[in-house]
Design brief:
This protein is mainly α. The protein is built from 7 helices and 2 strands. A hairpin with a 6-residue loop joins strand 1 and strand 2. The C terminus is likely disordered.
Length: 182
């Protein structure tokens, strides 16, 4: 007998995973790709949501802003005249005479004008008060009106969820867009 007996023929035996294991790996790989794709979409959405919002620009003449600051600080007429100066008082008078020109820059709807009037009278407004003023409009439309006024810089949002209420923004909002657009 020889030592090499039996080595002249080879037998091939498969040693890889079974068909069941292969299918499980394939399903797991597809699931993994789907999860990774979902996570990538989620990350892209987060990146879009995290982009800073553009600044709201408030276009108002300087005497108007100074007068509003004086009103916010509750300064009397004498101190206000000191802050504005004689030229500032004259410029403010001219600006208020030409108010329709300022009004036309940022027109508001009739509903929004009612909301601004309510805020000026009562100091604040929330969705339920706005609903009482405009009962024929759906809540979502009224909420969007308030959000639009806030985005324009006319109102400031205070509180959260059910406690949300809006007040006049501090600079320039007292003079801008009180009357509805034509």
């Amino acid at each position: 007998m020889s030592l090499l007996l039996g080595f002249d023929t080879m037998r091939l035996v498969r040693t890889g995973p079974s068909l069941k294991e292969g299918v499980e790996r394939w399903v797991a790989a597809r699931h993994h790709r789907a999860v990774v794709a979902r996570l990538r979409r989620f990350r892209r959405q987060l990146e879009q949501d995290m982009k800073p919002e553009p600044w709201v620009t408030l276009e108002a003449p300087m005497p108007l802003l100074l007068a509003d600051v004086c009103n916010a600080l509750a300064l009397d007429e004498e101190k206000r005249a000191t802050v504005l100066g004689q030229q500032g008082e004259q410029a403010l008078a001219e600006i208020l005479e030409t108010y329709p020109v300022i009004r036309s820059r940022v027109p508001v709807s009739e509903r929004q004008a009612k909301a601004l009037a309510h805020v000026r009278e009562h100091g604040t407004i929330n969705l339920s008060a706005y609903r009482e003023i405009c009962p024929c409009w759906p809540d979502e439309t009224l909420r969007l009106d308030l959000a639009n006024l806030m985005a324009r810089g006319l109102l400031t949002k205070n509180g959260d969820k059910k406690g949300t209420h809006y007040t006049l923004a501090s600079l320039g909002a007292e003079w801008l867009t009180f009357y509805p657009s034509e």
